[in-house]
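Sample intake sheet
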Amino acid sequence: MKTIVRTTALAAFLLLPTALFGAEAAAGETKKTFIDMYKEGGSVMHICALFSVGVVWLTIDIWMRTNAKKMTPPSDVQSAQQFFLAGDYVGAYQAMKAGISPFTQVARAALSSVGYGKEATEEALIAEVDKINSTLQTRINYLSVIGVCAPMVGLLGTVGGMRGAFSELGTSGIGDPTALSAHIGEVLVATAAGLFVAIPAFMAFYFLRNKLQAAVHHLQEEAEALFRNAPYEYLKDADVGQEATYAALPNWVAGGEAAAQG
């Protein structure tokens, strides 16, 4: 319930600039609705609308993915701890393999290398954490891309509106101020739309980036705690994962050994 409330509040916050923009226009020009302003902005408003939807969707999606309880579920941590306390590393691997959280992915990767010693286990653990961090960071970076591109799209609409305004001046001079004001309105609306999309996108980018760093740090701490003081000397060469092995000896080595035995 709390997650739903938070995501709803976050979506409302991201859409607040657009709502204020529409309210300001309505206060200044009571005859124009938000749809009228949308049409006045020209074709670039469709792109800005897509950017706005993308910002809201990405923010809510990444917010939920980087939740500490989502990345490191207490139930998965407790399950792994119970298997480790019982010394059942094979059972721990199978339980982590059945899980879908980032924590189970990290624990499974580390368990698959536990038979090769402490250094190999730690390298596998860190590599999996980096992989998860990179995947989520890539999604967050899309917010930065939108934040950079949205003002440029608004500028494109500005250039189109100015071109129309100068064309109108060249055709009919200043005798028809109504037609000229329509092009000027397109300039202002397109510019404002680009900025209103870019500002929340950049705010969400920096906020979620910091949130991801905290979540990844917590994930790595919980995973490393499992393998603290692990009995690597007893786990040496152990095939905890019990996965199928496809890398057999080279055929010329196998053939040589068969010939020697014959």
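Comment: The chain has eleven helices and no strands. Residues 118-172 form the longest helix (55 residues).
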